[in-house]
Design brief:
Layout: H1 10-44, H2 46-57, H3 76-90, H4 93-107, H5 116-140, H6 150-163, H7 179-191, H8 204-218, E1 225-226, E2 229-230, H9 233-262, H10 273-285, H11 300-324
Antiparallel strand pairs: 1-2
Helix pairs in contact: 1-2, 1-3, 1-4, 2-3, 3-6, 5-6, 5-7, 7-10, 8-9, 9-10, 9-11, 10-11
Length: 345
């Protein structure tokens, strides 16, 4: 099997990972420090700036402020710095390394072709951010954005789109947002960031390949191709398997939450609770950190479920994908059972 990125030097990649991380987090911390000096003072702004820069680049979502970034709803520069750190941390170090090589090649007037992996990452990431920006802004224009000027609504809509895919910062209270916004957030949380990044989720490439796979099969093609390249069947099988396992785990967690946290009560008595626990399960599994306000009230079993979701979401899908990448075992004695088809769809 060929390398995802041809002629990739992994020793150089490791050096680049360290360089990118230190450089972006340092620049982010410096910018946030300068922006927060007027509010927090010369000494008071230092620690929050460093903490939020690292948290944003690592897509952790932790904040030293009790209301996350809700106090900066009308601070576009602060939101912009955080968004850039989130996106850079979420596209993956493989793609960042390729972009650095591409820039160097152009300066030297050499030809360099981005790998299919990086092209899918960049196009999918851009499409998700743009689509989410439009939808979030439209959904919340007269809801949680109601008291903001028009420019702030657009900025906060963009921030909601960027942070939903595993970053975990928030400038609004999701318990007061519309159901459309919260369900869209669940979908974006499930997709997450890109492979080889600090983000969680099933990853942008998996989402793109599943969509491409369905589209190509609908058109009658038995090979999945994109931009003049065919994608190996083994890769498509891993993508389908990963989505199936992730969907099954999140569904099982939602069932546990609705059973242990809600109990057996009529839906009309707690009509809004189901979406909250669906949101909680998706956020935990995809290591996002957003909540509609039910985390503090979880029972012991609910908290254990949340911990397991976060652990499996960070480690499990990657381990599962790696196990599928192993060579298939041949049937004992070289024999196999006869084929019989099954109707699907």
């Amino acid at each position: 099997m060929t390398q995802i990125i041809p002629n990739l030097d992994f020793r150089r990649l490791i050096r680049s990972v360290i360089l990118f991380t230190v450089a972006f987090e340092f620049i982010g911390a410096l910018l946030l420090y300068l922006l927060w000096i007027p509010d927090l003072g010369w000494t008071g702004a230092a620690w929050p700036a460093v903490f939020h820069s690292i948290s944003a680049f690592c897509n952790a979502g932790f904040s030293t402020f009790s209301d996350s970034l809700s106090g900066y709803q009308r601070s576009p520069l602060v939101q912009l710095v955080i968004m850039l750190l989130i996106v850079l941390g979420g596209i993956g170090f493989l793609t960042m390394e390729e972009l650095a090589v591409l820039r160097k090649a152009r300066l030297q007037k050499r030809r360099f072709r981005l790998s299919l992996h990086s092209r899918i990452v960049l196009v999918t990431t851009g499409s998700l951010i743009l689509g989410g920006w439009v939808l979030f802004t439209a959904f919340e224009w007269h809801v949680s954005f109601a008291g903001m000027p028009a420019w702030a609504k657009f900025v906060n809509g963009l921030f909601a789109s960027v942070t939903a895919r595993t970053a975990g910062f928030n400038t609004i209270d999701y318990s007061t947002a519309s159901d459309s916004t919260n369900f869209l957030t669940i979908l974006l949380m499930f997709i997450g960031g890109s492979p080889g990044s600090t983000a969680g989720g099933i990853k942008t490439t998996t989402f793109a390949l599943i969509g491409l796979f369905a589209f190509q099969r609908y058109r009658g093609y038995n090979v999945t191709s994109l931009w003049g390249r065919s994608i190996p069947d083994e890769t498509m099988q891993r993508a389908v398997g990963l989505v199936a396992v992730a969907f099954g785990l999140v569904t099982a967690a939602i069932f546990v939450f609705t059973t242990t946290e809600q109990g057996t009560v009529a839906h009309n008595e707690v009509p809004e609770e189901f979406l909250k626990y669906m949101f909680e399960a998706a956020s935990a599994f995809n290591t996002v950190g957003l909540s509609m306000g039910v985390t503090d009230s979880l029972t012991g079993l609910g908290r254990i479920t949340t911990v397991l979701l976060m652990f499996i979401g960070r480690v499990g899908p990657l381990t599962f994908a790696a196990s599928l990448a192993r060579r298939w075992r041949e049937p004992i004695g070289g024999m196999r059972y006869s084929y019989e088809d099954v109707v699907i769809g």
